[in-house]
Amino acid sequence: AVSHVSNKVPIAKEFRQLRSTVQQLAGQIVETRTAIPPSWVMVHDYLCDEDQRELQFLRWGDFCRLGRRMHVHPQDMVGLTEYLIDSGVIVHFADPTNEICDLVIINPGWLSKLMASIVSIKM
Which of 6, 60, 75, 89 is spaced 20 to 30 Å from 111 by Cα? Predict the structure, then answer.
């Protein structure tokens, strides 16, 4: 939905309209969430803790060891990975035909800066 804001209409009216639109859209959302396992939350919090982050990426095997250390069952690693990708905590390309699938970027901001520096190199 698009909500237009005008500087010719009192701001309170604009916010009432915006609030009404948000409430209407929120009422249409179908609840599909499932409970997140506590071990997944531990991994999430660990990876988000700037003091803990020494590396910018991990190899898949190291990422799986981190999961095991935080009591994630090996069969849940794909689900954990999808959860962390959806949360914006990691970047992982699961294409098994490409060597990049072995990398788990645990600092997406670092990857963004790296890509920006590659794109902005002057020839």
Answer: 75
pLDDT in tens, the chain (123 residues): 566 666 666 777 777 888 888 888 877 776 666 789 999 999 999 998 877 667 899 999 999 999 999 999 999 999 999 999 999 999 999 887 888 889 999 988 888 888 888 877 666
Cβ atoms of 84 and 47 within 8 Å: the answer is: yes
E-only strand ranges, the chain: 57-59, 91-92, 103-105
Per the DSSP assignment, residues forming a β-bridge with 99 are none
Beta carbons of 107 and 56 less than 8 angstroms apart: yes
Q: Whole-model pTM?
A: 0.67
Give the CA diameter of the chain: 58
